[in-house]
Specification:
The protein is about 65% helix and about 5% strand. By secondary structure, the chain is mainly alpha-helical. It has one domain. The protein has a two-stranded antiparallel ribbon with strand order 1-2. β1 and β2 form a beta hairpin. The longest helix has 27 residues.
């Protein structure tokens, strides 16, 4: 626990600015993915190639990872900022 999430007796939570920013970055990425999926679905013209299935699986995995980040980010005080950053950018900083 790094103190970036405080759970209060009334079940409210308080996030530090850094923890909030990590969660916001995840929501912005989810928004971009959703918009990209709409464009992707419109552009798929060759379903027999099977490539769209692989792309959809990859996107689904990323959506799941971001959803988990948000769940841990707002509810698990034991999840450190470093853990959240790793979930946000698992391949390292760009």
């Amino acid at each position: 626990m790094d103190g970036s999430l405080t759970q209060h007796e009334n079940k409210a939570v308080t996030l530090t600015e850094e923890r909030r920013d990590i969660c916001l970055q995840a929501t912005w990425e989810l928004d971009a993915i959703a918009k990209g999926l709409v464009a992707f679905a419109s552009a798929v013209n060759e379903p027999e190639s099977g490539q769209h299935e692989y792309a959809c699986r990859a996107v689904a995995a990323r959506i799941h990872a971001l959803a988990m980040l948000l769940m841990y980010g707002v509810s698990e005080a034991s999840e450190s900022l470093d853990d959240l950053r790793t979930r946000l950018v698992p391949w390292g900083q760009a």
